[in-house]
Automatic annotation (TrEMBL), chain A:
Keywords: Metal-binding, Oxidoreductase, Zinc. Belongs to the zinc-containing alcohol dehydrogenase family. Its cofactor is Zn(2+). This is Threonine dehydrogenase-like Zn-dependent dehydrogenase. Transmembrane segments: none annotated. GO terms for molecular function: oxidoreductase activity; zinc ion binding.
From TrEMBL, chain B:
This is Inner membrane protein YgaP-like transmembrane domain-containing protein. It comes from the Bacteria. CDD domains: SRPBCC_8. Coiled coil: none annotated. Signal peptide: none annotated. InterPro entries: ORF3, Polyketide_cyclase/dehydratase, START-like_dom_sf, YgaP-like_TM. Pfam families: Polyketide_cyc2, YgaP-like_TM. Residues 24-85 form the Inner membrane protein YgaP-like transmembrane domain.
Amino acid sequence: MRAVCWNGITNVQIERVPDPQIINPRDAIVKVTATTICGSDLHLYDGYIPTMQKGDVIGHEFMGEVVEVGKEVKTLRKGDRVVVPSVIACGKCYYCRNNLWSLCDNSNPNAWMAEAMYGFAPAGIYGYSHLYGGYGGSHAEYVRVPFADIGPVKVPDGVSDEQALFISDAFPTGYTGADYCDIKPGDTVAVWGCGAVGLFAMISARMLGAEQVIAIDRFPERLRVARDYCHAVPLNYEGTDVVEELKQMTGGRGPDACIDAVGMEAHGPSLLGLYDKVRQTVRLTTDRATAVRQAIQACRKGGVVSIMGVYGGFLDKFPLGAAFTKGLTLRMSQMHAQRYTHMLMERVAKGEVDPTFVVTHRMSLDEAAQGFELFKHKEDECLRVVFRP
Amino acid sequence: MTVASEQDQRDTLQLKYDPRSWQQVNVGREERLLSTIAGAALTLCGLWRRKTVGLTTALGGLLLYRGLTGRSVLYRLLDLNTVKESPSTVMPLPDGSGVRVKRAVTILRPADELYHFWRDFAGTVPVHPFVEQITPIGDKSWHWLVRLPGGEFVEWDSVLTEDIPERLIAWRFMGERLESVGGRIRFDPAPADQGTIVTLEVEFKRPDKLSLLNIIPSGMILSRVPEQLVREELRRLKALMEAGELPQAQPRESEKEARRNA
């Protein structure tokens, strides 16, 4: 089959690789009908996630059609249209049973690697380095889906591929971020980053009852999407003091909750931002922290900072003093997709929300290299690229 | 039920060492590696430059001794010890013939189910890396076919030495070129509804053949490999009992072969 392979930093190519096969009884093979470049794919693309190997097939946010099932999979049949959560979870361990799906104990064959780095291992993720299991990715014609009896959600007729696609990752990630905020009536939620995850976090915050949502970014077209589709108040961080602005927008109180939907490759106009960039370039630090620093600084006393942007290693100049002094609650994780997928699919099917507003570019797999460049540099007002293999 | 049993306490007590013993390894892993490299370099350097041969080679020799044996005279006199081996997971056997590795994992399944799975032995093949086949011979013995990392096959017999239903199983190995002398597995209830705490204890023999592996003694490589092995066995047991299968990103080599031949 044809697949997008990672061949080094900012080097992805379409190549011929062997078709995936059923290995375990709970596997399924899915023919990919839509797959999208996630912001976290850029961390792989830019070489910030360790344990990538030349030739690894990348991609993890996808949907498709079931073409083969293992003998233990009773819930799916050949021909079913499904959207598949990007985090792989067994559904049987302590963490899955407690709704903490991305912490699954049994889905990462390279758990020893992650244990050495993090103490304990997270769940496996499709096409997201060997640390996360070394599974084949979704920017391909076919994907092997382990624990297919638990993860995949059937797409009802009347819901299009692109409408269902983001229930694989960006939508539940945004929802997890908003859910962590413990939103109460009257709350203001500020969201750093108007990529798909940030935008879905804004929509989710509204669903959960936030009175005001503030969108922070520097790209006018993204801020426009946040205003038009997510009912958010836009705030361009360039040329302004974000913390002070947020204070004034909330009557001097500060946002009740702040969501970081940016992660380890944040851009910052300040000196500290430049300092991060230099240290990251020479690999003295792995993660750039502008967004999360601002979120901690801006959050009201006793508020929640919810981190959904991906961090991989060590953070420099982390303002723990501010977080401690203000009594903040910090919550973070990879999203627990399986907790929300069915509920989100229902809402999409009912027409409460149409996630396709984030799609700006549609391409074939052969154009993957251009797709990544376009998405990384946000050229041509690119918000999300969808490949139709 | 996380309180250590009487047996465990004895195990830990055995480890209480006399810091003044000449036999005591008192240099940590990284330090030993550095000592060995520096010692070898100095020795070579001394032999090369005839002028200072005595002093340099002597110092090199001392460092080499320190690195290879892990025993530092200076540390002994100063009562220092930089060994950081976690004593509860890897411990040297009292007679110095190898190491015992002991690790625990919590599995969300009832003890009786885990006990019966293990008591059958033949069904535990997927849990053990390198083991190809286990066949019962009589009620209390099994025949093991093991494929060593080099691809070579060895055969061992195991015999049941202790069997407390739903609680404990112990076994001994017999045969040639044994890597493992025996082991035991214990099942204790975990707090709340978290299943069962499984503690696996395996004794490993130091290889008979003189090789690089046993020149560098137990503190270093010899204890690392067995510890990884036990870690992996417990991880596989957990996945198999909870999820019903072992997570895998790629087909195993044997499966690829089977497909090619099909």
